[in-house]
Amino acid sequence: MKLDKTKLGEHFGKVGTGNQTHLGIMGTNRDIAVGEIFMVYSSRDNNERIFFFRVLGLENYLRQVENLSKVAGTLMVEGDSYLSGIERNMLLSVEGRLLGYAEQRGGKWVFNSPRRLPDHLADVYRPISGKSDPLVRDMLASQTGGEIYCGDLQVGESTLQVPVNMDAKYLPMHVGIFGATGAGKSNLMMVLIKSFIDANLKASRGNDDVTKLSAFCIDPHDEFASGVDDYGIQDIVENMDEQTRLTVFGDFYYLTTHLAATSREIRRYARELRILWSEIKPRDLYSIMDFTNQMGAFIDGQYSNSGEDWIADILGMDEPPGGTTKATFRAVKRRLRFVERSPVFAKSGSSVLADIFEAMETGKILVVNTSLMGDMEQFLLTTVVTRTLSDLRRALKSSGNLGDFEKQGEKRLPASFFSKVKKKAKSFYGVSGTTNESPVMDPKNLPVIQVTVEEAPSILNPELMRGRSVFKDISRQGRKFNIGLLVISQQVSVLDNVILSQMNTEINLRLGNEREIASCIENASVNIAGFENEFRVMSRGEAILTASYREMPIPVKIPLFDDIYRRDKGNYKSNSGNDPEEYII
User: Fold this and answer.
1) Residue 286 belongs to what H/E stretch?
2) What are the extents of the domains in the chain?
3) Separation between Cα atoms, residue 273 and residue 342, nearest integer Å
4) Residue 468 has pLDDT above 90, yes or no
5) Distance of CA 399 to the CA centre of its chain
6) Which of 314, 368, 370 is closest to 339 using CA atoms?
7) Over residues 539-551, mean pLDDT
8) Are 141 and 542 in contact (CB under 8 A)?
9) How far apart are CA 176 and CA 488, in angstroms?
10) pLDDT digits over 287-340, tens only?
11) Range 5-69+89-139: architecture per CATH
12) Category of 64 on φ-ψ map: left (φ > 0), alpha (ψ -120 to 50) or beta
């Protein structure tokens, strides 16, 4: 069945020169922008294919004229009358990249990497919003599908009604969000949090095909809950009926260091953020700051002798123990002073870590206000939570039944913490009961956990990643335990290669300079060589999404959170069974 080419959009021009990577197109004198996507119709050997082409460069072309500058000079002398009849010879020369092609197999569209060329002088079409959208959605379904909505397909300075999503099952293979200040990272994070909530809402309404998602979302500016402009996550929470809210969010979703300073509306769903010293392991500190071998040996010795009281014992010492120099002793105490002074970390009292564990194992979203924390406090909090979740699922992965899991948990986790969560953990991890003989679940059948790492270069740099970093192990093995990192950074160039090489998906917003653009292109999961000009002209909220499980780099326009909340807020009111809209109209 022949394709109706009018559904591709308006006819723009013809293919001129090129190869399976780059094409040159000669088109009509239209107002084209860098970044637009054209579709090229080809039927070589009666194989009907639609090639997707991205505009990377433009040049004015005047047919039958070798030197356009001479024409411009003559025009200046003789005036507009010289142009009479010349308009028909004005064309636009377009250069760009072949992104791949779609063809029908068994009645379905299949997208392929650009291993072929379109016909000589093949027709080129410019998609039209409202006309081309259904066909483009079908042809790019394998490149844009998934549960996690990011934005809409961008073509130049406009968008098509083609939603761009990430696949939830690949989140444990790690996601990077890269962009300069003002590029739209905070709004993107709010859009992603809403998408996580929407996925869990679908799951709560009986959609067994939807993966449950958990997220520990660091909010360094305290914007996510109340919103940047009119709406925030709190509005979603309040729009739900009580039963839906308890199912999707539980008793709380907001963590803060100063509960009394939180607005009354948010405080109803908030917990004060406290972690006990006994829940911190030496490796957590090794992941966020430098220690010499001598300091590490002293700390490890104290941990071996004192167990979970190691911090309290070191801070309580007046003199170093035998075998430790005063310089080493004082240096370790200096590094631990921020823990002693911090309102987040306490020597005694209650801790929220067990509640965080329960939330993460039941598919909940937590917004963590770190705006009143110092950098080291934020980094240590993120590390303790990540390592704790990883150790629990590592213990699970190493076990054949719940009895084995209990033994593994006692080896890997601080005793006081594990005693608090052991009963709950068994109820989450047991397949058919909670006895020691009960078999355990595969972590891949548990909720996907995403942990955000803000200001990533401070703890994911080569110096710290050379040591015993928690994040080095998570980057390499997180997929085994269904735990992924969501790395947020203004810079790509300073991140450790281990992290970058393990990253499966990148959302690249506007970047600050040529060095970061080059690093972004070099480390992208899909080949985006030649996209330098694209990055230079990006506006706020525009991005290129690359993923190792897809063939095509996807240009995305990220909508404002307020706009998509207004669009979907009716879906949160009751158990209506309605799903959020697929795209913005």
Assistant:
1) helix 282-286
2) 5-69+89-139, 164-273+352-570, 278-345
3) 11
4) no
5) 31
6) 314
7) 95
8) no
9) 6
10) 999 999 999 999 999 999 999 999 999 999 999 998 899 999 999 999 999 999
11) Beta Barrel (2.40)
12) left
Region for residue 519 given its phi and psi (left: phi exceeds 0; alpha: psi -120 to 50; beta: otherwise):
alpha
Confidence at 466, pLDDT banded by 50, 70, 90:
confident
Query: 504: which residues sit within 8 A by CB, 6+ positions away?
Result: 170, 173, 174, 175, 525, 547, 548, 549
3-class state of residue 73 by DSSP:
helix
Structure tokens at 135: 């066909």
The SS3 assignment for 65 reads coil
Q: Rounded to whole angstroms, how far apart are CA atoms 65 and 88?
A: 13
Q: What angle do CA 368, 220, 194 make, to 5 degrees?
A: 60
- List all residues 6 or more positions away from 573 whose beta carbon is below 8 Å from its beta carbon: 239, 240, 241
- CATH architecture designation of domain 164-273+352-570: 3-Layer(aba) Sandwich (3.40)
Cβ atoms of 554 and 224 within 8 Å: the answer is no
Where is 464: in which H helix or E strand? helix 462-465
Count of positions (residues) in the chain = 585
DSSP type of residue 294: H
Burial class (CB in 10 A: 0-12, 13-18, 19+), 47: exposed
Q: What is the pLDDT of residues 154-164, one digit of tens each?
A: 998 999 999 99
pTM (whole model) above 0.85: yes
- Nearest-angstrom CA–CA distance, 351 and 273: 8
d(CA 119, CA 41): 8
Q: Which helix (H) or strand (E) holds 508?
A: strand 505-508
DSSP 124-176: EEE--TTTTHHHHHHHTHHHH-SSEEEEEEEETTEEEEEEEEE-GGGGGG-EE
What Cα–Cα distance (Å) separates residue 183 from each residue in 177, 508, 537? 11, 10, 12
Contact 286, 252 (CB under 8 A): no
